[in-house]
Amino acid sequence: MLLKSHVGLPKKHMPFLAELKQRARRLRADTFALYLAARHPETPWYAKLFVAGVVAYAFSPIDLIPDFVPVLGYLDDLILIPMGVALAVKMIPDPVLAECRARAKEIIANGKPVSLAAGVVILAIWLALAALCILWAYETFR
């Protein structure tokens, strides 16, 4: 990861990197808080729908623009996800968001959250894509 290694950078860039790391941690915590808010009964339906899309995209290993595409590959990670999280935060009622942020902080402090269902769904998608690629290769080269 680019942020972990700042050896050789001038000292004036250190606070910028520390601030960037702090923003990334806050974004991760807010994304998890949004996940909890999407499951909260007092969250409006339109916010639940939008939050579900943002959280699924943020936690998914599949990107709109693949990361190996120079410059543009990280565009969605640097711009789209923070914008989506910021818009989703504005859709959630303040008391619900405060409660979900507190729960997220507590859960993260006790250990990383794990969702078996989400892992199974992502694994199933990758296996289906692999099967389709194998089927395509078989049909193409036989």
Query: Which percent band covers the strand fraction?
Result: under 5%
**Could you say which structural class the secondary elements and strand pairing correspond to?**
mainly alpha
Termini distance?
A: 42 Å
Principal-axes shape call: globular
- C-alpha-based Rg, rounded: 19 Å
Count of distinct strands: 0
Average residue-wise pLDDT: 79
How much helix is in the residues?
over 70%
Number of domains: 2
SS element count, helices: 5
The biggest beta sheet reads: none
Order of helices and strands: HHHHH
Residue runs with pLDDT of under 50 for 5 or more positions? 1-7
Outline the secondary-structure elements.
Layout: H1 14-38, H2 45-59, H3 75-91, H4 94-110, H5 116-141
Helix pairs in contact: 1-2, 1-3, 1-4, 2-3
Structural summary, described in words:
By secondary structure, this protein is an all-alpha fold. It folds into two domains: 14-111, no CATH class; 113-142. Helix content is 70%, strand content 0%. It is built from five helices and no strands. The protein has helices at residues 14-38, 45-59, 75-91, 94-110, 116-141. Helix 1 crosses helix 2 (45-59). The protein is globular, with a radius of gyration of 19 Å. The termini are far apart. The model is unreliable at 1-7 (pLDDT under 50).
Please describe the structure with a list of short key phrases separated by commas or semicolons:
142 residues; 5 helices; disordered N terminus
Short summary:
The protein has 142 residues and is mainly alpha-helical. The protein has helices at residues 14-38, 45-59, 75-91, 94-110, 116-141.
